[in-house]
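Notes, p. 3: input format for complexes.
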Amino acid sequence: MPVDAHIHFANLFQRDPEFPGRFSSAAIASCGASHDPEEFAWSEAFRESLRAGGGPLPRLSYGIHPQAPRMEQAEFLDSLARGGRIDVIGEAGFDFFGDRPEFTRGPETLAIQRRAFEFQLDLALKTGLPLLVHLRKAMDLAFEYARPLSRLPAVIFHSWPGTPGEALALLGRGVEAFFSFGAIVINGHKRAASSLAAIPASTILSETDAPWQPPRGEAFCRFEAIGPIVAAMAAIRLLDAEAMEAQIAANWVRAFGGGS
Ligand SMILES: [Zn+2]
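Output follows (260 residues plus zinc ion):
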């Protein structure tokens, strides 16, 4: 079964209103991300709608995204995590890509993003839930937090932005890290390919991040991109696509705590 470790169902629905019907028969193991209560309600209802079909039910994540680090979300997130309504905390992390003023690294933006990240890291430690991490131009912070991260059952780095050496160093610091790759492997992103080629097979995950991160030339990413993404990953790992898919499915069970 293909694995989509990170997808935004409600955002995808806005771009592709026909997707739910196709998704229900696609048999993809997935984790749907939400970052505000309305989006989460949509995702929960979507998951319910799939129950009748008998296919795999998506896992759900909820996080305070570093691009919108609003602490008003904290109470809601806390109630979801403690109430067993989410499987993963995140996306949580740091974004200093610089494409907007609030994503430029400075004392104030760093302090704001730290507050949101530390709250979520702490909640993951208290609840024992895995953490889904978003990092852009902030790799040093992953190492700064490596010690508490190493106490979590799993840390999933979505759209892994680092080098092979950084991936191996995080594993060396005892972090139960998983590195997830999306359409950038189709788009010929060199660093992603070199990381994917070098990391242990047991740490690899696949994702679409749909509707974001489209394959080059497409207006948005469809959930069906998971097939070409896994095929491109297999080519980089010198495996056939079935073997790659099976490896990722085994990793999914470890990262997301079993089940589908
Ligand atoms: Zn995302």
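The pocket of zinc ion is lined by residues 6, 8, 33, 91, 209, 212 (CB under 6 Å).
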